[in-house]
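>> Question from a student workshop board

For tomorrow's exercise we were told to take the sequence and the ligand below, predict the bound structure, and bring the output to class. My setup keeps failing. Could a helper post the expected result so I can at least see what it should look like? The ligand is zinc ion.
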Amino acid sequence: MTKKIFWKDPYLTQLDSHITSVKDTDITLEETIFFAFSGGQESDSGIIGNSRVLQARTEGREIVYTLENGHGLKPGDQVSMEIDWERRYKLMRLHFAAEIVLELVYQKFGSIRKVGAHIAQDKARIDFEWDENVSKVLPDIQKEALRIIDANQEIISAFSDEEKEKRYWEIRGFAKVPCGGTHLKRTGEIGEIELKRKNPGKGKERIEIYVRENFG
Ligand SMILES: [Zn+2]
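>> Workshop helper replied:
Here is what the output should look like for this input. Compare the format with yours to find the bug.
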């Protein structure tokens, strides 16, 4: 089972590890900093050995990386990996912005149901089952989110069950929130955010979250 160093240190951009299995272009590693799509957060991009990673996917608790043809790696090989930090940091900022927005929506409208979420490099989105137009509440939520960001609160990320790889995050004023994504150390790192409404269809409302490009 790959040891997920991206949880212990989500700011690590380079790591040496060993190959544990190879099947054609698919490989697994002893340890990894390379996040694979889960919980709505997109995979990292980057290099393992001399190959670009074409796809990263979770299989149970294992992470399988698809490399380019002719990667030349075999089990036991030492290998170095590097992730695209600009992309990862943007994903982390948007991810935590989305976490805060979601918790604020739950705090204000307890009965609203989340039906989807996606964190990409340019924006995050959260979809809700919601009969009313979300535009009315967005300025309030944005203001409240910015207050939490400006307060630069510490974000605690830890295991709730290390054996089962269950993680949570916590900041002052919120209950523990289960999540296996990569989290920032402090809310201030998010920077300025902007919320927009999209209406994806009847009975659904979408909140899109953007972070300012020229921050940090
Ligand atoms: Zn999270």
